[in-house]
Amino acid sequence: MDLTRVGAMGRSLAGEGVMYQAVDVNRAELPAGVRNGGVVPVAAPGAPAASMSR
């Protein structure tokens, strides 16, 4: 497994979790050698699109 090319996807609350994981300030929480290659949040509660519907 190539941990330098990791992608993450989550729906709803897990979508918010993958966004948290992808933020640069949280990079130290990833295991050594793991690098995020992409993130796909689906219907994350804290996503900007949710606030646009108001």
What does this structure look like?
The protein is an alpha+beta fold. It has helices at residues 13-22, 48-52; strands at residues 6-11, 36-42. The protein has a two-stranded parallel sheet. Helix 1 links the parallel strand 1 and strand 2. The radius of gyration is 12 Å and the shape is globular. It starts with 5 loop residues before the first strand and ends with a helix. Residues 50-54 have low confidence and may be disordered.
Mean pLDDT: 76
Strand content: 15-25%
- Taken from the alpha-carbon principal axes, the silhouette is globular
Our count of domains comes out at: 1
Main sheet characteristics: 2 strands, parallel
Query: What's the β-strand tally?
Result: 2
Helix and strand arrangement:
Layout: E1 6-11, H1 13-22, E2 36-42, H2 48-52
Parallel strand pairs: 1-2
Give a short summary of the structure:
The chain is an alpha+beta fold and 54 residues long. 28% of the residues lie in helices and 24% in strands. The chain has one domain (6-47).
Please supply descriptive tags for the structure shown above.
about 55 residues, disordered C terminus
